[in-house]
Amino acid sequence: MNTGTRQKPFTNGSRPDNGGIAGAATTFAIVAGVVGARLSPRVILILGDANLIADGFARAADNYLATRSEREEFGHAEAVERRLIPDRSGG
C-alpha cells in the first residue's frame, strides 16, 4: 500500500550488512588453515584473535568512509538545491 510518503534511502546506521558473516568465514578459514598446518593451539588463538581485531578495524574504516561520503553527497545535493531555488525573500 502506497501512502504517498517516500521511503528514506539506506543510511549508514540502517543499511543491510553481511560483513559479520564474511568476517566469521574469514576467521574460520584462517583458524582451519592453522589447524591443518598442525600448529600449536596458542598460535591458533593468536591468529584467530588477530584476524578478529583486523576485521573490526576494517569494518570501522568502512563505516567511517561510508558516513563521510554520505555527508559529502548530501552537502553537494543541498548546495545544488540552494542554487536552483530562486530567492523569494523580496530582496
Short overview:
68% of the residues lie in helices and 0% in strands. It has 91 residues and is mostly helical.
What does this protein look like?
This protein is mainly alpha-helical. It has one domain (21-84). Helices cover 68% and strands 0% of the residues. It has helices spanning 19-36, 41-84. α1 (19-36) runs antiparallel to α2. The chain is rod-shaped.
SSE layout:
Layout: H1 19-36, H2 41-84
Helix pairs in contact: 1-2
* First and last CA, distance: 44 Å
SSE string, helix = H, strand = E? HH
Fraction of residues in H or I helices: 55-70%
Mean pLDDT: 78
Strand content: under 5%
Count the DSSP helices: 2
* Radius of gyration (Å): 23 Å
Main β sheet profile: none
Unreliable parts? none
Number of strands: 0
The count of domains is 1
Shape: rod-shaped
- Class per helix and strand makeup: mainly alpha
Which key phrases capture this entry?
rod-shaped; 91 residues; mainly alpha; 2 helices
